Input
Amino acid sequence: SQELEQSPQSLIVQEGKNLTINCTSSKTLYGLYWYKQKYGEGLIFLMMLQKGGEEKSHEKITAKLDEKKQQSSLHITASQPSHAGIYLCGADGAGGGADGLTFGKGTHLIIQP
Amino acid sequence: DTEVTQTPKHLVMGMTNKKSLKCEQHMGHRAMYWYKQKAKKPPELMFVYSYEKLSINESVPSRFSPECPNSSLLNLHLHALQPEDSALYLCASSQDWGLQQPQHFGDGTRLSIL
Output
């Protein structure tokens, strides 16, 4: 079965600073998804990556998938309090949603004013 | 605001009770999912429905019984649950099940078993 390792587990960043979260897979990634979760709430979809070398951006968040399709990074520029939360990377298999999503353990992001 | 609606938001029940969790989406998605999330853990897949048929049951105990009455609705029937079943139950949907597509999640039902 596929395993996703996220690092760091937690991150405290001063407001306005940049940060990066990493997600490494034990197998080739077919679809890699980034989600954000506030404690006790649902997951908010951020971005999906499929192709090696792919990069996507939305507002101040950029996600990349490496050429070998086994590692992804999520980069936040000029962090704001609204970025605080738990970031989860998720992956599905070659069968897409038929396999459901496997998640990493998450990165807890705290933004200090 | 999420396009996947889950009710109730909170549920407290005894071990002998029977209750149901409901999930609804009106995005025309044909795949729906149940996940279980324990505190400080990532969500874990329980069931996958595609075109209203159960396609995956991840070795979930029979005290959890899913039902998909139509393409917009997904229920999870609960009976004789154990205290360790206390968790956040998340429903998700995606456009189709065989392709790489994002899953959209509801806000979850927080379940507490007394």
About this structure: The mean pLDDT of chain B is 93.
